[in-house]
Write a structure and sequence with these properties.
By secondary structure, this protein is mainly beta. It contains one helix and five strands. The chain has a single domain, classed as Roll (SH3 type barrels).
């Protein structure tokens, strides 16, 4: 059964929380850490593999680790 509460879990992510993100939007999901939860605006995430800050990410491109329902 799909998690019906997935969106509220994404919205509740705080700085320091693990996440997965797409940047650019066409790319694969990557591991990261939330630096700024921008809500419907711009998010900032630290790319775990590159150790770089990525900004200008919309909520549609962020999900909790392992989440599959997000923006399917």
């Amino acid at each position: 059964m799909a998690d019906r509460d997935w969106l509220s879990k994404v919205e509740a992510l705080r700085p320091g929380d693990a996440c997965e993100f797409k940047y650019p939007a066409r790319s694969d999901w990557r591991r990261g850490t939330v630096r700024r939860n921008g809500g419907a605006g711009y998010w900032e995430v630290v790319d775990e593999a590159k150790g770089k800050l990525v900004s200008g990410i919309y909520i549609e491109h962020v999900r909790c680790p392992g989440q599959t329902e997000a923006w399917a």
